[in-house]
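Risk register update: the risk that structure generation would not scale has been downgraded. Supporting records follow, first protein first.
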Amino acid sequence: MKEKKEPSSTGALSWFTDRWKTSIRMHLLLYAIFGIAFYLLLIKHILPERVEIQTGMVSPETIVSPVTKIDLTATEEAKKQAAEKVDRVYAKDDRLTNQQIDKIDRFFADIRKILSDDGLSQAEKEKQVKTVLNETISDDFPESFYHTLSTLSPEALTDVRLKAREIVHDILEKGVRQSELKEKRESVDDKILATMIENSLDSKARIVLREIAKKSIVANEFYDVKQTEQLRDAAREAVRPIPINKGQIIVALGEVVTEDQYRKLEELGLLRKDSNFLPHLGLGLLVISMLSALFFYIRRFHRSVFRNNARLLLLFSVLLLTLVGMKFIAFGQNLEWSMIGYLAPVGLGTMLITLLLNMELAIVCAMLLAVAASMLFNGENHLLFDFRYGLVSLISGTAAAFALTDVRKRGAILQAGAVAAVASMFPITALHFMLPSEGTWTVLLQSLAFGALSGLFSAVLTMGFLPYFETMFGILSPMRLIELSNPNHPLLRQLLIKTPGTYHHSIMVGNLSEAAAEAIGADGLLARVGSYYHDIGKTKRPQFFIENQLKRLNPHDKISPNLSKTIIISHARDGVEILKQHKIPKQIQDIAAQHHGTTLIKYFYYKALQQERDGDQVRQEDYRYPGPKAQFKEAAIVGICDCVEAAVRSLSRPTPSRIQNMVNKIIRDRLEDGQFNECDLTLKELEIIANSICETLQGIFHSRIEYPEEPVKGAKQG
């Protein structure tokens, strides 16, 4: 759909000045106002409801978690318990085991030498035994033990050594911690008892074995701090974070609030004791980001909206109306109607923007509305964005916009609504199949029903609001133009009855203008309908215009050129007044006022020059239309075609070459007269317009064969 580039859109906003419509400050103010309204509509949907509650109180309601969040306190407690369950790690030092065995061997070797020395007395032997024993094993032996040890036979010493080695090795090999030292030494008695059963030892040998073995048992297993901490760290890491799941009941209705529940409410930000400004800041940044993107998009691709604040106000009015409708639907979302978000009338916004502005802008706005839908309908799933509603809204709104491209009748709106309804069903079904756990078949059918109703509901609302927007903002939608082109319109019927010649002329001008406008990419429908009404002012004095005189006397022959000029000029002003009375849109009024621009009424100007008397001075300015000059392409095209149609009709032999020369001359004269200085027609476009007009006129004034007369009945056939 081609973008409409009318110079003004006033209607109910006509009291605003042109300066207001082009003010950049007002432009930014409109963005700010819409941004604030957008923010206020969404803020309640990102902030959880806060409660005023204390530990030990009875909860007045059931409070659930609005989000999934890690319970940091519970997770840390679980990690602490997991670490505490890890036992201390002890490392056994086998060197100590070997060292103790070596001491036993060395001790008994030294004792054997001492006892086998016949040159030593018993007292000396006992003294040396004590010295060796204190140096190798321990100094904590009773005095009697030294005597007992020194009286053992060599065979007994051998048996004691072997059994001591065996007992000490068995106990130390299993590891002895400092805390177990007493217990392990006491276990020597059990070992000796077992030895006595297998090997008989005398009482003295058992005493020596018992004391030597006990004193040889030392701690050889020690606490490994590093490895223990590594295992505890691993145990902590193995603990999975404990979540507070979305929808999880924190406090049930009537339940006494515990400290742990109060802590969870505090971590979730559900307590009213303090205010959190971060969600407000986040939403504000999101709104600013989206509106900034919209600002630069409109500035780059839709200059007619960017330069006209009235059009921007129209855009924001449609978006705000749609958002309010979506907000109203959001109030009905609950557990029973959880899928009512699919009823969001996003199509209302995209269809109105397509019809009143253009389709490309409508599709971009569908993205903005989709983001809003995903936030407005996030209530039951406790998500910031529920992508399901955003996706369905985007597809439905975009389909509605595409379905309204180049429509020419209002019935197409209902068809577009049906297209949007069907388009919404595909993503709804796809999402249900991809997330089967989210609902039953009943939920699917309910969702499909809401999606279908959304498209039809949007179409009905569009048909209802469209006339109001057209009137308030003076927007000429294609459907409104089609209605104005109906020959049964009261003004066109009045034109046909009072001025049949002008009516025919206007139809011809409409055909020429539409073809020329479409050739350069302008609004052909606007040019055609504007042509139908451009000479409506002639209905006030139809007999003063030659196409309506039908061989009657020309009244201008009896009046002065100055009076004739005044009557001719007045038809443009009279036409604007008539169009205003019948509430015809401003663009049509502009065409009626601008199609002659400030051109010279040459016939009466030259007639006045011929009748000029001495002392009188005929000024060319007095015989020009008051203007204004054409302000937009369609008005300039209608002016060219109006002049061309009248000129070509006056040709006695409208051959292609004469038509082309006439068209080129009219356009060249207007160009040199500065009639196109205030519209954005280029020389290339003027050439295209000239070629289009010539092609259309050649189709109208094509040569025809001369039919032979019917032969007289009874004449002789040759």
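Supporting record for the second protein:
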Amino acid sequence: MAKIAFILLTHKDPEGIIAQAERLTSTGDFVAIHFDARASQADYARLRAALQTNPAVTFARKRHKCGWGEWSLVAATLEAVRAALTAFPQATHVYMLSGDCMQIKTAEYAHRFLDAEDADYIECFDFYASDWIKTGFKEERLAYRHWFNERTQKTLFYTSVDWQRRLGLTRRVPADLQMMIGSQWWCLRRSTIEAVLDFVARRRDVMRFFRTTWIPDETFFQTIVPHLVPETEIRRRTLTFLMFTDYGMPVTFYNDHYDLLVSQDYLFARKISPDALALKDRLGVLWEQRGVSFTVSNEGRALFNFLTGRGREGRRFAPRFWEREASLGRDRTLLLVACKKWHVAKRLVEQVRQQAGLAAVEYIFNEDGGLPDLGGIERSVEKRNRHRRALLRMLFEYHGTDRLVLCLDPAAIDLMRDFATDKCTLRVLEIACDFTDAYLIGHARRVGLAGETTPPEVLDRLLPTIRNDLRHESDQMRDAGFPVFLRMRQCDSPEVNAAPLAAFLGIAPDLAHRIAATDYLFVD
């Protein structure tokens, strides 16, 4: 009978990982865990302590700091795979999972499924001929070398690609490989994964190539497996049910999707909402049950495509099931920086990115640009405001984070109040600036209250009104009753400002002081 070694790539939610590992091993299978080296050391210690007595659980010997789109994700997978093969000689299959995956069948069903065919399950489609990539770079993923992360080092990433393009510094794919692409959520036989590890040890040229390939977790195994395994032994599909919205982001499943999920022709599903506690409970109980029969209708993708193809008209038939839940997520923290002087907020969040490593976006509800390709939702300020929560959910996903810093103009009090009603954790930091008459006159001209030829006497009457308006915006924020509201002030010293900044970001006081002490922070 099939015995599965599950590879769990995780970076958060230790309690959820512990529960998943205990559940998956309760039926005779195994788990190998890679916990991101960027994540909390306390969380990792909690994982090790809780699972150290479970002989069916092992951990990757080396932990990598993982970044979306980087080689580090493949390196982490290889570490966990090596640990699994060493610790569990009885395992017949290796199955890739993330912390957002859950089983949608019983273990009994999964074992029978894998026993039925001697095959590998992995998406692998021709990289150049298929339409698997919907948006963003395609040939550029392979043609150029990528040393920087597009999400955290955007300027360096695109500058590097631009210079390689200008200088004609393209590279060739290893001559004997046909490049393939597909989902990173695969299930491979032990013999196949052993052959992959042997290939990796022999082919240093292939390893060098993939180390600087963009998003290699969608091409590495997908290329090597069909290179090593006969076509007749590969099923070009994943056993994990996942879908993408028309904005190119993964569909999230909620409490009312149990019947939909268990009727799909898959063993696991991704992504399950952190808030879908009832769904998690039902699926968790399901795994250990015996004698359960499943009616597989497999209509999930067809239903999704039917409604998506009709755009908003689809709402006449039924609400889009992937959009029913509008929350950003109970386990996420939205950090709002409210500042009238946009350049001050932008300087602050740039330091937060560089020194604290937090994901941050600037005045995306006021200014065009500044966002990656999210399938179209990002194209106009109007559309961003209309789909504000959907946009932020995508940005959390895009940056692979549970904490996101967002700059807002203090006038956007309605946006702040809306986010305050969400299930996420909200913190608001006001940066209270000093405003000279010259600055206010410039502000009046920028917003159309005054022009270059406006008489001085008109400006003299206008300035008190503008000052009162700015004071009113500040008072509105303080009176809104936000669960966490903190203030930095231009007139205060870095020592004073470090305390609210540390509380706002959840960082150490000395790091907050370094950020608050940025010498040009408040310079006009």
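Confidence is low (pLDDT under 50) at residues 310-325. On this basis the risk owner (M.S.) recommends closing the item.
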